[in-house]
Design goal:
Elements: E1 3-8, H1 13-23, E2 31-37, E3 42-48, H2 51-60, E4 67-73, E5 88-89, E6 95-100, H3 106-115, H4 127-137, H5 142-152, E7 157-163, E8 170-175, E9 180-183, E10 188-191, E11 203-206, E12 211-216, E13 219-224, E14 235-236, H6 241-245, H7 252-258, H8 260-268, E15 272-273, E16 278-279, H9 283-290, E17 297-302, H10 304-320, E18 325-329, H11 330-333, E19 344-350, H12 356-367, E20 371-376, H13 382-386, E21 389-392, H14 405-424, H15 430-451, H16 454-464, E22 469-474, H17 479-492, E23 497-502, E24 519-524, H18 530-542, E25 546-552, H19 556-561, E26 564-568, H20 576-594
Parallel strand pairs: 17-18, 17-19, 19-20, 20-21, 22-23, 22-24, 24-25, 25-26
Antiparallel strand pairs: 1-4, 1-10, 2-3, 2-4, 5-6, 6-7, 7-8, 8-12, 9-10, 9-11, 11-14, 12-13, 15-16
Helix pairs in contact: 3-4, 4-5, 8-14, 8-15, 10-14, 10-17, 14-15, 14-20, 15-20, 16-20, 17-20
The protein binds fructose -6-phosphate.
Residues 303-306, 350-352, 355, 358, 402-403, 491, 608-609 line the site of fructose -6-phosphate (F6R).
């Protein structure tokens, strides 16, 4: 997730582009850059760090011109360095562009372009697009070259392109990543969302996937990728800036819950492909995994939500990759005196990549000779730098303190890792592998469908809003779901005490509290232990507890047993924790909302825990 902007008009572009970027900084902030076309040439300025570093550089050395583009980055391919910061240029510097998204086939395109004599300066997927347009522009006018280049791309993109020879124009296109147009008086803008353009105009033209735009100060010429003219009326945006930044949602948490289908898609894209059905990792990670000692054991480390993701990973890796796995709270691991050696692989899971306990855990593991793989959301973070290999989640920046999309992307990444190792270690049959991989490819749509339960979940939350204690129960893959559901509720609704348990543990203590009306959230989706979960449900009902049940679509038995039923699409049990996370997040959200809690910044909590 990055933010991109463009401006073409009569005014100086640089301050307008910077102002628009400042509105998009929530989308990424590890580096930023602008490019301005003044007709004589395109000047580029890029800096590592937050936008203010770039703004300071531009204050000292301003760029002049009335056509410009800008970018604020959340690194996905290549570390956050100046070379990898956008905008990126072709060999001549006459074509300069910014990009948000992931070009899946960049490696093969890059090879093709290097063979054709192009020189690359960055490690990004984006730079290939600039060179690809340059290649086509040798034989075609720029508009057509841009269109031909787009046809070669696989993956997701929102792009803004400057051509030195077209000073009053910006070319844009989108496929799978957001891009819209702002139509002002004698000026036009591009933005990743409406916040970017709202200072200048409220007249917005939304773009659909595979549409191409030629933007001038007079307005926008929109066409399909094949060149057919598109006519669409602009809409007027009435939001204030704060709510626009949240995409119209009242809280970042709700926005991030809704971003999950896309975040999970971005995490899968470029790794697992449908046709042919194939799973590839970046070279460094693939080499790391292929050279693992066949007798290695995994020690998964994480804190809070990341630890819960690790618990799901334990089920996945043991069942399908046939690997011995233990999961540890990073804060305990470092003081436990664990037995580690070169046959141990430590898998650190972290959104921020800066959590003090997890970082200390991997340092200790490395000092004892263990290998370290990280699942991390922030490129260039301490853990990403210190690990031997990294599988990045592509969730984009998570702003709400309570983790939602980072969690589902962590579990998605664990599913990808499991498939990779299951194949390498021949842990499952090719038919079973195919079935799991196909389910994973379907996951974004499955999550979209799951989100349709939102209004129903809100109604249930309204019924329970005054309750002050909650149990969450699940088994096997959804035991961690129970822990995560309870954590979400107590985290953002601190008036409520919530506990998650493995459902089989009920009889060993927690059941003593069950009495009339005591609420229990069950995760009872399809699984080999489904009947056992229902037995636990009966035990709660026998004591007059109140059961909310998350079950698979079409489950009549759960309907008969539940006081309130939330259904989710059927999936393989392997993926069910990702699907089940959504109703649990929404339930916590609406409980907190009904109780007037500070949802995005709950008391006593911080987004990144960099102290012990
Ligand atoms: C819960 C939450 C925390 C984090 C934990 C680890 O919603 O956000 O429990 O999961 O502090 O943080 P990272 O993943 O950044 O290491």
């Amino acid at each position: 997730m990055c933010g991109i902007v463009g401006y073409v008009g009569k005014s100086e572009a640089m301050p307008i582009v910077l102002e628009a970027l400042s509105r998009l900084e929530y989308r990424g902030y590890d580096s930023a850059g602008v490019a301005i076309n003044n007709g004589r040439g395109i000047q580029v300025s890029r800096r590592v760090g937050k936008l203010k570093v770039l703004a300071e550089a531009l204050r000292r050395k301003p760029l002049k011109g009335a056509t410009g583009i800008g970018h604020t980055r959340w690194a996905t391919h290549g570390e956050p360095t100046e070379f990898n910061a956008h905008p990126h240029s072709d060999c001549s510097g006459k074509l300069v562009l910014v990009h948000n998204g992931i070009i899946e086939n960049y490696a093969e395109l890059k090879e093709r372009l290097i063979n054709a004599g192009h020189r690359f300066r960055s490690k990004t997927d984006t730079e290939v697009v600039a060179h690809l347009v340059e290649e086509y522009a040798k034989r075609h006018p720029i508009e057509q070259a841009f269109r031909l280049a787009l046809k070669d791309l696989r993956g997701s993109y929102a792009l803004c392109l400057l051509s030195q020879d077209a000073p009053g124009k910006i070319f844009g296109a989108r496929n799978g990543s957001p891009l819209l147009i702002g139509l002002g008086k004698g000026e036009s803008l591009f933005g990743s969302d409406a916040t970017a353009i709202m200072e200048r105009t409220r007249k917005v033209l939304y773009l659909n996937d595979l549409e191409v735009v030629e933007l001038t100060q007079q307005g926008a010429k929109v066409t399909t990728l094949s060149g057919k003219a598109v006519t669409r009326k602009p809409t007027t945006v009435n939001w204030n800036i704060a709510s626009a930044r949240k995409g119209g949602y009242p809280h970042y948490m709700l926005k991030e819950i809704h971003e999950q289908p896309d975040a999970v898609r971005q995490t899968i894209v470029g790794r697992l492909t449908a046709d042919p059905l194939r799973l590839v990792f970046d070279k460094r990670t693939a080499r790391f995994l292929k050279t693992l000692d066949p007798r290695t054991r995994f020690v998964i480390l994480g804190c809070g939500t990341a630890y819960h993701a690790g618990l799901v990973g334990e089920y996945m890796l043991e069942e399908f990759a046939k690997l011995p796995v233990v999961v540890d709270l990073a804060s305990e691991f470092r003081y436990r005196g664990p037995m580690l050696d070169k046959h141990t692989t430590v898998l650190a899971i972290t959104q921020s990549g800066e959590t003090a306990d997890t970082l200390a855990g991997i340092r200790m593991a490395k000092a004892q000779g263990a290998k370290v793989l990280a699942i991390c959301n922030v490129m260039g973070s301490s853990i990403a730098r210190e690990a031997d290999a990294v599988l990045y989640t592509h969730a984009g920046p998570e702003i709400a303190v309570a983790s939602t999309k980072a969690y589902t992307c962590q579990v998605t990444t664990l599913a990808l890792l499991t498939l990779f190792l299951a194949k390498a270690r021949r842990g499952i049959s090719p038919a079973q592998w195919r079935k799991l991989a196909e389910g994973l490819l379907q996951l974004p749509e499955t999550l979209e469908k799951t989100l349709q339960q939102e209004a129903h979940i809100k109604t249930i939350a309204a019924k329970y809003m005054r309750v002050r204690d909650f149990y969450y129960l699940g088994r096997r893959y959804n035991y961690p779901s129970a822990l995560e559901g309870a954590l979400k509720l107590k985290e953002i609704c601190p008036l409520i005490h919530a506990e998650g348990y493995a459902a089989g543990e009920m009889k060993h203590g927690p059941i003593s509290l069950i009495r009339r009306g005591w609420p229990v959230m069950f995760v009872a989706t399809d699984s080999p232990v489904y009947e056992k979960v229902l037995s636990n449900l009966e035990e709660v009902r026998a004591r007059k507890g109140s059961c909310i049940v998350v079950a698979s679509e079409g489950d009549q038995q759960a309907r008969r047993h539940a006081d309130h039923l939330i259904t989710v699409p059927k999936t393989d049990e392997f993926l069910s924790p990702i699907v089940a996370a959504i109703p649990l997040q929404l339930f916590a959200y609406y409980m907190a909302d009904a109780n007037g809690c500070d949802i995005d910044q709950p008391p006593n909590l911080a987004k990144s825990v960099t102290v012990e």
